[in-house]
């Protein structure tokens, strides 16, 4: 297929989880011999932090404005077999209306923030990248969230077809790394107000209680008012090419889920897949559907209190820790590789094409 993707960013992972998701998908699509053009708005905060200015698997082009996007790339969008618009794309509503108007092939909306999108729509706050009427215009809604949410989008917003497309992980880049163990528990994630209580509960409080333990938090935008325990190392950013070594220096890694994702359930974070691919055991908060991704107690561990975290860190025997990490990696290799995700997308496109052919044509009213 000829595919055009208009996404928030693929060149910079600074402060967003979109870039690594897109990079992995591009690798999978390329491996399956699809031709992909990725179009990204040139934003200043990404311009200064481009850790992959030319990601493999696609031709990547930056544009300065919506007007430039139209003037330079309307032909490519029009002629594509599939045009995908991602969540949080600048001027996303305009972009979506334009894409669904000019594309002759299939159109899709890839919502990497599904619960956030739906809660905004339900509260009457209009997201800047999607409207209810636009949801109905896309041939396919690709959702980072699975489970009952998929049926809800079809029922409430009239989407012709909604399918889950979870993140995946580049298993060439995310591999087990033999490294000196620097930390008992690490966390990689941008600051989020609704995620901070979970970080306090499952890492910072355990760090205060276990002064001989070693911890690390990596991510931007944390307020200066946070009081970090002395045994918690802080770093603002590490590039994805350094992630495997970072995970490899942790005995366990922590996953904290945003509240909107927890309420929706079935919303796995890319960090789950990254750490799993590196065979590093994950300690995660609980949400509905987690057990559809990993087997709790065998492929990942669950904590709800500081005492849970400390028990897992201090009482898990080393052979069992290694087995949990190995089983997590096996799960990733079986179900969450770029090639697997690209194959899923191919299947959805075939379904959407059939669905489009079976939909009645709009009735033309003559004056």
Word description of this protein:
It is a single chain. The chain has 367 residues and is α/β, with parallel strands linked by helices. It has two domains: 2-168 and 338-358, Rossmann fold (3-Layer(aba) Sandwich), CATH 3.40.50; 183-335, 3-Layer(aba) Sandwich (Rossmann fold), CATH 3.40.50.2000. Helix content is 41%, strand content 16%. The chain has 14 helices and 13 strands. The protein has helices at residues 18-31, 44-47, 66-79, 92-102, 114-123, 132-137, 149-157, 196-209, 243-248, 259-264, 270-277, 306-315, 318-335, 338-358, and strands at residues 2-6, 35-41, 59-63, 82-86, 106-111, 140-143, 162-164, 183-188, 215-218, 232-235, 250-255, 282-284, 301-302. The strands form two sheets. It has a seven-stranded parallel beta sheet with strand order 3-2-1-4-5-6-7, sandwiched between helices. The protein has a six-stranded parallel beta sheet with strand order 10-9-8-11-12-13, with helices on both faces. The longest helix is centred in the last third of the chain and has 21 residues, at 338-358. It starts with a strand and ends in a 9-residue tail after the last helix. Residues 362-367 have low confidence and may be disordered.
